[in-house]
Each structure stands twice: as structure tokens, then as C-alpha cells.
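Sequence in, structure out. Go.
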Amino acid sequence: MSLAWSRGGTRQADVVRRLLWGAAFMVVLPLQTSVMDVMAIGGMIPNLPLIGLLLFAVIEGPPAGFAGGVALGLALDFFSASGTVFYTVLYPGLGLGAALIGQLTANLRAPMLLTVVASASVMLSGAHAIWFQPFDRAEDMMRWLAASLGPQALYDTAFAGVLYAVGIWWHPPARQSLKDHDDFFTAGRFPGSVR
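Output:
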């Protein structure tokens, strides 16, 4: 019997990888509420839980993206003062969507990943505005869209780009041959670039 979202490694390596991802998720929430305030620009803070979920989902695949979204959404709803199920409803879909895009893309490069982060940031902020309806008039909402939604998405995307660059520097992708590229169509996604 194989563990969920196995990547073909040994069972011990799979368990260790899951424990490391779980520990990273446990660290993300306190970081978002304490340390990330230092990085505020114009009142906007990078959404570290969202960025972490998207990177996790793209790397680990759809079952893990969905499960990570449920776990992170439950934790965010539990610790937020709103008392709703907003994040529990939204984060599994964002995790699953990012993972599916990652699987459909044979060679996920920075532009595609950053597009996923920007899109998810816009969707999350827009859904937040619709769910909680903090605006009395449509003009207020339009002003908010112009002043906050775009800049927040840009900030999240830039922060994710920095994390991606550090990840590529820390663990460079393996070079793939043209045969590996051809095998993509028969075996699924491959992680590296064709050179």
C-alpha cells in the first residue's frame, strides 16, 4: 500500500517530505501574523499562506494540493476572528487548481508559476470582498479594486518570485534530455528543462 501523493521515492523519504511540508505550514501562520508585518508596503503584506500553498500544490500534485488547502484553510479559519469557513471553502480549490495547472504544464517555468500566484491572489482578494461585503457603495468597491487588489497581487507575485529564485538556487532543476521530453506524453509531467 502506498501513501497518498507518493512521488516514487522510498516510503521513508515520502514520510519525511510530508513532515517537512507539515512543519512549514505550521510555521507559515505565526510568520504571517508576526514577522510579515515588517514587510508591509502601503499597508499590504505578502500572503505567505497562499504562496506556500500554491508552491506546495504545484510541487506535490492535486491530492496534496487539495489536502493542504483543507488543512491550511481550517487552520486560518480557526485562528481568524471572523468565525466563518471562508478559507476552508476557498483554499482547497486554489490548491487543487494550482496543482492541476502544474501537472498540465510539462515544464513549469517562473512566468507560469508567477501567473498562477497572481491569479490566485486576485481570486482570493476578490472572493474576500464578495464574501464579507465591506463596501456600502459600488464606487467604494471600485476604488478598492484600483488601490488594493492590483498592488496586493503584484506584491504576492514578487514575493513568490523571490522564493522561487531562492528555491532554484538552493536546488537547481535536473537537466532533461529530449527522450525525457518525449516520455512526458506517455508518463506524465517531468520536472526539469530541456536543453
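Check: The chain has one domain: 11-194. The helical segments are 11-33, 48-60, 62-79, 86-104, 110-132, 138-170, 178-187.
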